[in-house]
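COMPLEX REQUEST
Ligand: alpha-D-ribofuranose
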Amino acid sequence: MVDRTRAKLGTTIKDVADAAGVSVGTVSHVISGARQVRPATRERVNAAITELGFRPNRVARSLTRSRTSTIGMVIPDVANPFFAQLIRGASDALEASDYVVVFGNSDNLGAKERRYLVEFIERRVDGVIVAPASNADAEQIRDLGEQLPLVLVDRVTPGWLGDLVVGDDQAGMALAIDHLVGQGHRQIALINGEGELSTARERRIGFERALRARDLAAIAVSEGSFSIESGREQAITMLGAEVRPTAICAANDLLALGGLQAAHELGLSVPGQLSVMGYDDIAYASLASPRLTSVSQPGYAIGAAAARLLIERLRDPGGARQEVVIRPSLVLRDSTAPPDPGALGRTG
Ligand code: RIB
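STATUS: Structure written out below.
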């Protein structure tokens, strides 16, 4: 009778060989498929593996096959629903190709990101997907890209010349400005995340470029972090200014939710006295009150595209570099409306 307790805690390949009455090498050949094994013997070995609950050691197996079928993924904020969707898209695609995915949350901190990247190398992952936490890791990411297949997703660090999947951030902000200016807004402000990140930088550039194309300028541009609290703080500051914005454009939905919170605290009605727009179109956008107008970028599809590029790279290490740019779209809801005529030029 098999001791099931031990079977669950640490069955070895030797245990399987003993149970099947074959050598360890035969068990290894059945697992790896590296050599032909008589059907009857293979059946005995597979029965013992099932009975004992044996799980091949990926790292040990990698020493013979030089692959672990494991992918490392580092994401800056798993609490942000956009990244949760991105992770889901990538992991579904990778698991469909028989990869196991190991995640790390960098909290937008370079030190945490670096620790995960080192751990991934030591665990001999086959490839890595990173949404960079900061530009400080640009050189480390370039070096890592020399050592194993690596795809950047959502954000790009300076000097990266490898595979990449990003949203078209400038086009996304142009959609937002076209919508707000089309409604009659001329006093438009931007609240943003960490300015050094490519997403924050490209959205600010897109915002200002789209205004310039209409002979307009931002009434205010600020930055903080891609979080609800930062959105609230930035909006409160702007709404207390000499000339108040009639519309706030947020560089992501978490910032926009903070903007709604600020308007509520200041007794401003949205969209009656202030319009607020978001970016990402996370699930909460349609649950907010009022429901949030947002620039939609498909986190799931972006993650799946990053996984596809990595799988193709693993199959063809010398293949041409691939860059996928996902075009965003506009989702109109209830948080934007033509400005209150009395609000134009209103102070404080
Ligand atoms: O990292 C913050 C933001 O950048 C996310 O909300 C998403 O918009 C990403 O592109």
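REMARKS: The pocket of alpha-D-ribofuranose is lined by residues 76, 80, 82, 154, 167, 193, 199, 226, 252, 279-280 (CB under 6 Å). Residues 1-8 have pLDDT under 50 and may be disordered.
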